[in-house]
Amino acid sequence: MRSESLNRFGPGLALCSVLLWAGLMPEEALAGECRMSLSQPRVDYGLIRSAERAGDQLALGKRTLQLNIACAESAPMALRFTGVSAGSKGFRFGRQGYFTLSLQHPQVDGQAVELRVSGEPPSGQLLPGQTLVARAGGAPIHGRRFTALVNIETFVPAVGLAVRDETAFEGQGSFEWVPGA
Is 180 inside a domain boundary? Predict the structure, then answer.
């Protein structure tokens, strides 16, 4: 594979030519009597030639996926994402980067719900160690089908992409349905 020289990072330096974020989850995962699926199990940013600067970080853009949970019987709707923590920023991406996850338009059995971490206001953002619980009218809700859009935003330090050779960055993790939440 080749690398290209980019003037904005200085002469002789190349931007990461392959950026891969893999392993969100298997295409379908069975948990008890519920089946979880994600529209795209891998997010591949491909060859990165430019990115939007966000402070000392470069934003690689937002990707949106569809998350579905289908259960044979009515069940509590709660989920978490397990991955390497990057602290309060989100989940680790490469050695110094991170990615964030937020869920939008969550629905249980076709009705809009809010996603909440116990005792916190609804945000839809999923951070390390947190479990989001679907709620309606302030109480946890049970149902047979959960859907939501998952927004993934990835950031890497600007100096991290100023490399001489092709460099791969990865972040991994998986969504989990949490039946007892």
Answer: no
In the chain, the largest separation of any two C-alpha atoms, in whole Å, equals 61
**Residue 176 covered by a domain:** no
Yes or no: say if 124 and 53 are a contact pair by the CB < 8 Å rule: no
**Contact by Cβ (8 Å): 35, 176:** no
- What's the confidence (pLDDT) of residue 149? 95
Buried b (16+ CB within 10 A) or exposed e, 116-149: bbeeeeeebebbbebbbbbbeeeeebebbebbbe
Smallest CA-to-CA distance from 68 within 25, 6, 101, 100 is with 25
Q: Tell me if 167 sits within 8 A of 159, measured CB to CB.
A: no
Q: What is the pLDDT of residue 52?
A: 64
DSSP, res 55: T
Tokens of 36: 């979880």
Q: Is 178 part of any domain?
A: no
For position 161, which CATH number holds?
Answer: 2.60.40
- pTM assigned to the model: 0.76
Confidence grade of residue 42 (pLDDT, cut at 50, 70, 90): confident
State which residues form the domain around 14.
7-168
Count of domains for the chain: 1
pLDDT at position 56 is 76
Q: Could you tell me the CA-to-CA distances from 63 to 28, 50, 119, 127 in Å, in that order?
A: 19, 16, 29, 17
